[in-house]
Amino acid sequence: MGCRAQINGTYGRLRTVEPAPDGGLWLTTSNLGDKDSIPDNSDEQLFHVQLG
């Protein structure tokens, strides 16, 4: 059984991958960041991915 890329290039930089209680994965992204003083200046997202 092999692995294949499913979301390569889709969501930007994947930063954190953690197991979810249901057997899936939680993923966070970090693309633009908050490097200035403008509130809500980020497109970071949280995703849940079902496995299997």
Secondary structure elements and their pairing?
Layout: E1 14-19, E2 25-29, E3 46-49
Antiparallel strand pairs: 1-2, 2-3
Description:
The protein is built from no helices and 3 strands. It is an all-beta fold and 52 residues long. A 3-stranded antiparallel sheet has the order 1-2-3, with no helix packed on it. The radius of gyration is 14 Å and the shape is flat. It starts with 13 loop residues before the first strand and ends with a strand.
β-sheet strand percentage = 25-35%
Order of helices and strands: EEE
Residue-averaged pLDDT: 75
Strand ordering within the main sheet:
1-2-3
The residue fraction in helices comes out at under 10%
A few lines on this structure:
With 52 residues, the protein is mainly β. It has strands at residues 14-19, 25-29, 46-49. The mean pLDDT is 75.
Search tags:
mainly beta, 52 residues, 29% strand, 3-stranded antiparallel β-sheet, flat
